[in-house]
TrEMBL record, chains A, B:
Any GO BP annotation: formaldehyde catabolic process
Enzyme class label: hydrolase
Protein name per its UniProtKB record: S-formylglutathione hydrolase
Catalytic function, reaction form: S-formylglutathione + H2O = formate + glutathione + H(+)
Keywords linked to the UniProt accession: Hydrolase, Serine esterase
One annotated Gene Ontology cellular component of this protein: cytosol
Keyword DNA repair: no
GO terms of molecular function: carboxylic ester hydrolase activity; S-formylglutathione hydrolase activity
Family as reported in the entry's similarity comment: Belongs to the esterase D family.
Active-site residues, as the UniProt record annotates them: S151 (charge relay system), D236 (charge relay system), H269 (charge relay system)
Function comment: Serine hydrolase involved in the detoxification of formaldehyde.
EC number(s) recorded for this UniProt protein: 3.1.2.12
The organism of origin for this protein: Lautropia dentalis
Length: 299, 299
């Protein structure tokens, strides 16, 4: 791992690292915020942040104002890029893609099975396996993890946590895509990366996953008890067409899956919305990360 | 005035406006944060923020995390662009300038007297006269003002406040250029915009101004009593060559000008540094803006 940036920040340190990823076969950038407690040598729990369409590892660390809360709570923040990048990616369509919602900046946190994407676009494995192993080996991090994200990254956080409830203590999201199988952004990405098989899509669809929990899908025979917190602005221009949080609310209610969905009047899809509520999210995660969660999933 | 952006943010509203400036003869962008108190119809004091080299009206509002503190304290934040812009600016050298430290993005908060800059590069008059008049006419703002800024903008804040102590209750700065006449960035800008006359330079040099206070320069016969707060990171790469805060400290001590200069160990020149301490600056300004200042300039 090579450190490319470091900045003192709220008594801790904001760093950016680059490493050669075995999952994506590319150099990946990842931002790591170390709170004062970690700099003092104490191992801290980790909150992973997955960003949205068009973002890289910079957006969250420069715009969310999250570091102050992580500093107060003793939480390490880890924010990876949203896709592999590079002009040397196999396949002309990958290297030169110009769509904001496909290819570079739009990995959708899946393992692609379709050409030309399959060799590199493996953000699911990257976030679930490779990145935590790297973080826990190179930084003063415990194996106590939470995950959050925005929009496409909210989709990533929800699906990754629901598929791996033993690996994360809590999951939250800002304006997530909850049902990619049912909305234009998600349908375009899932068809391109995974082909036309509905079963493949369902592996990466939070609403489909919650609905399937009661049917012992993916080995889950009961609600995960994983606590979920979602904030959604009511003035978000993507709310009706792309995000549709009510689909997740209905599915969770039917499945007995804990969910706190908060509609925030007047807020939009921007980092001004994230900045306003990220302190509450980090506080919520910190209480769970540092206290454990009870059997009901309530905190 | 035309509103080009608005976002709910910490219970208030972050807006960006565009207007035709009579000072610069161009369209100018200005960011305005209205705290909840202002949205409720109460007039609030205003903190003006002047950004540094290469910045426009976006940097401060997206990266500093200042809105939360302004929301708590009931302060309006106003952050203008750092120069006139546009391909139609008179003079080839202005329109096509490529230097990061001259021309567009680098107005240095002076009224240029030299060709081809003089017709448009009038950021001093813009910030001192036109902008406050506009803000106080169009927003729920009182005439109680403070001013702050970063680097080139710290230079702007200090020189503008020292020349107009009756117009501002307090001034603060992050890593300001305190003596532009003595450092490369400042010398290049002052020579280009003002020509070679040292007396012209001294009008835009905080250290020169403080030194001159005791000599009845510019009508000031005594220290201004204007409270000054400065934060400076010790790991700032520009500290020794461009910033040199010790020159201001010495001048203020000799002149009896109040100054609190804080060296912050390990911090650099970035917005991570600003974000860490902007809450303390806004709290400091707010106490002065809402309480007035005593005769000694102490707060």
């Amino acid at each position: 791992m090579k450190r490319t940036e470091q900045h003192a920040c709220f008594g801790g340190r904001q760093e950016v690292w680059q490493h050669e990823s075995t999952c994506t076969g590319t150099a990946m950038n990842v931002a790591v915020y170390l709170p004062p407690l970690a700099l003092a040598g104490e191992k801290c729990p980790v909150l992973y942040w997955l960003s949205g369409l068009t973002c890289n590892e910079q957006n969250f660390i420069t715009k969310a104002g999250a570091q102050q809360y992580a500093a107060q709570r003793g939480i390490i923040l880890v924010a990876p890029d949203t896709s592999p990048r590079g002009s040397d990616l196999q396949g002309h369509a990958v290297a030169d893609d110009e769509a904001y919602d496909l290819g570079q900046g739009a990995g959708f946190y899946v393992n692609a099975t379709q050409a030309p994407w399959a060799p590199h676009f493996r953000m699911y494995d990257y976030v679930v396996e490779e990145l935590p192993a790297l973080i826990e080996a190179h930084f003063p991090a415990t194996q106590v993890r939470a995950i959050s994200g925005h929009s496409m990254g909210g989709h990533g956080a929800l699906t990754i946590a629901l598929r791996n409830p033993a690996r994360y203590r809590s999951v939250s999201a800002f304006a997530p895509i909850v049902a990619p199988s049912q909305v234009p952004w998600g349908q375009k990405a899932l068809r391109t990366y995974l082909g036309d098989d509905p079963a493949a899509w369902a592996q990466y669809d939070a609403v489909a996953m919650v609905k399937a929990q009661g049917r012992e899908w993916m080995g889950l025979s009961a609600p995960s008890n994983l606590p979920i917190l979602i904030d959604q602005g009511t003035d978000d221009p993507f709310l009706q067409e792309q995000l549709r949080p009510e689909l997740l609310k209905t599915a969770c209610a039917a499945a007995g899956q804990p969910l706190e969905l908060r509609l925030q009047p007047g807020y939009d899809h921007s980092y001004y919305f994230i900045a306003t509520f990220i302190g509450e999210h980090i506080g919520w995660h910190a209480r769970i990360l540092r206290a454990g969660r009870d059997e009901s999933g309530k905190v």
